[in-house]
Write a structure and sequence with these properties.
Helices cover 86% and strands 0% of the residues. 28% of the residues are buried. The protein is mainly α. It is elongated and about 65 Å long.
């Protein structure tokens, strides 16, 4: 979860502000290339593995842990789900639209393509960054509670 929070935060704090200062062609081309590059086994293992590990932690803690820790893990799972829904409902379709716009050298209206992509993508990335970071915080709290449980 921390890796995902860092990834989304990195986009929010550096990648998108940096590209926001670039010209239309640079932003479109860079985001098309980044989208292709991020589709790799390491990313998918993290992106799909994080929620799976939260479910696993929830099951284990429910069997032998404290109710308070279970509530924090459940909250983490809900927040993670929100981030995933935002990603699948908004960020990925925007990435796909940008890819389908074609080669930036051949796009007639780069400014429109950029405007259709950049503002909503940045806004939804902030939403998912906040959700996934809060999820990470909930997991940290649950870990603290788990470690403090008598007999540990």
């Amino acid at each position: 979860m921390g890796l995902l929070a860092g990834l989304f935060y990195g986009y929010a704090c550096s990648v998108m502000p940096g590209l926001g200062r670039a010209d239309d062609r640079t932003l479109v081309d860079a985001m098309q290339q980044i989208d292709k590059a991020i589709e790799n086994p390491a990313f998918f293992a993290t992106f799909l593995g994080a929620p799976a590990l939260v479910v696993w932690a929830l099951v284990i803690e429910r069997r032998s842990g404290s109710r308070e820790a279970v509530r924090w893990i459940a909250a983490a799972l809900v927040l993670c789900a929100i981030a995933l829904v935002v990603t699948f409902a908004f960020n990925i379709p925007l990435n796909n639209d940008l890819e389908h716009a074609g080669d930036p050298a051949r796009i007639a209206d780069l400014a429109r393509v950029r405007d259709d992509f950049e503002t909503p993508w940045v806004a939804w990335n902030i939403v998912r960054t906040l959700a996934i970071t809060a999820s990470f915080g909930c997991l940290a709290r649950a870990l603290f509670l788990h470690a403090r449980r008598p007999g540990r």
